[in-house]
Amino acid sequence: MKKLRSLYSHGGLLLTVFICALLWGSAFPCIKAVYRFWGEINYEPHLSSRWLLAGLRFLIAGGVLLLISGLRPALAQAQKVGLRPILAMSLGQTFFQYLLFYTGLAYASGSLSAVMANGGSFWWVILAPWYLKTPSPSPRQWAMLLIGFCGVVLAVSAPGSGGSHPILGSVLILLSNLGGTFGIMTFSKMQGEMSAKVATGWSLFIGGVLLCLVSYQAWDELPVLMGGRVVIGATLWLAFVSAAAFSLWNALSTQHSVNVLATYRFLIPIVGVVESLFWIPEETMGWGLMVGAILVIVAITGVKGTPVKAVR
Question: Which of 122, 179, 223, 273 is placed for a possible disulfide with 111 were both Cys, Cβ 3.0 to 4.6 Å?
Fold first, then answer.
């Protein structure tokens, strides 16, 4: 038990979050590479095709996690917890989050999306007192949230090149974070009844099935969608990213309070922006995105609250 606690000490926490940031940050250029490949073969993607790509990614990731965890223990834990909280977590963390995220990424650049994707930190601070009965934000935290909001406005106003409709894309990605926030907060109430690996497996698998179902219009186009090494490789990598990063993050949520994790999330947009600018050739960073990202990071580091455990 002491080894487990030392693993999630501040040094271990920082390293684990950095690994999650590297994994999640790679998703932005990876998805953009798929979209670029579709353009090269003159395939015009629609919402269903984007959702089907996401559904296959999570279906694979969740299925692998459940197999690794063992189907019998996974089913036993699911029976103990009940269908409702598992479904709520899956709808928030996987289905609604990525239904909106993949749509938003079609309109916003990868670097802007990386900044917007950190909106979950603000949602956590705002919603945790109501949902998890944690302490309400202090005046300083509200001030930091205001600074963060200003940063978002600046980032959207002059994001740089690489996105067709940055405002629409940013709104969709911010809303996707709302779903992800409810998902992780729902999981926090399962502590002691379901392991992070099993919960992540069910969340990804069920969410993947639902995404595949709502994208039924693209089923006939599957040979075209997956008709290249780029798409197949990207899908497998994204499945690994989901399985690894979500398992790590959900495990962290059992050891640290919402406010502490919200603070450390500032690494994710930094890494995401750097990876997007490095790997996506057509993207550049505008002054608004640069200044806005700095304000968002300042706000997130300043919004840190008292590191108390959330009520489970």
Answer: 273
State mean pLDDT over 191-217: 91
Amino acid (one-letter) located at 146: L
- 3-class secondary structure for the chain? CHHHHHHCCHHHHHHHHHHHHHHHHHHHHHHHHHHHHHHHCCCCCCHHHHHHHHHHHHHHHHHHHHHHHCHHHHHHHHHHHCHHHHHHHHHHHHHHHHHHHHHHHCCCCHHHHHHHHHHHHHHHHHHHHHHCCCCCCCHHHHHHHHHHHHHHHHHHHCCCCCCCCHHHHHHHHHHHHHHHHHHHHHHHCCCCCCCHHHHHHHHHHHHHHHHHHHCHHHHHHHHHHCCCHHHHHHHHHHHHHHHHHHHHHHHHHCCCCHHHHHHHCCHHHHHHHHHHHHHCCCCCCCHHHHHHHHHHHHHHHHCCCCCCCCCC
Q: What is the pLDDT of residue 301?
A: 67
Lowest-pLDDT choice from 8-22, 108-122, 246-260: 108-122
Report, as an integer, the average pLDDT of 291-306. 66
Q: Is the pLDDT of residue 289 over 80?
A: no
Does the pLDDT at position 262 exceed 70? no
